[in-house]
Give the backbone structure.
Amino acid sequence: MRTPIIAGNWKMNTTLGQAIALVKEVRDKLDKIQGVDKVLCPPFISLAAIKELLQNTSIGSGAQNMYSEEKGAFTGEVAPNMVADLCQYVILGHSERRQYFGETDALINKKVQAALKAGLKPILCVGEKLEERESGKTLPLVSTQVRGALSGIPSPQGLIIAYEPIWAIGTGKAATGRDANATIGAIRQVVSSLYGKEYALGMRIQYGGSVTGANIAEFISQPEIDGALVGGASLKAADFISIVEQTANIKKHK
């Protein structure tokens, strides 16, 4: 049985003070929810403070990005070991990084390797654009992204994949549970072809893209979906808590 994981990607939102306030608002209720791994991914500036706030709780934290090199003259970048000092997870390959910052599968592959070397658990994001979906390219494209990101990695222990259709991110238009389940099942087949069926069955694969408290049940009730990477709703304390609570209840009874 794969333990579901709900991660909140705050993106470029919250000042340090706002981040602290939000963590304090969700911390106690989230800590009490069992059977779900809970992760908060704030901007870099808040990771140290949030690490302190989450000590002795069941809630993990993650960075939204990192660079692939261990150190050096890379002004403005953050190294894997710097991230590993502050949190357990790191989001890599998010569509916004690919779209706005030109990140390629090759670069994401280097980042995944560096994250694993540093002892981090990467949350690897893959997904297609609307025109790619409409032209039937979803599965070939997502397969290429997964294979590219994992190229040359013998056993990515701890890695999580997040399927995030780009057309559903921040648009309010989510995929259906059935469609997301089918694509995630196909992603699991790709992982199986790389690492074997047993390994693939143990890997957690999330859905992301306009996930809210109102629609999380549709996704979590699907057999292939192991959680969610939540964007805007993770900035709303009550909504995020509801998402985690519903996930725990649904998975407990399956």
Summary: The first helix runs from residue 16 to 32. The first strand starts at residue 5 and ends at 9.
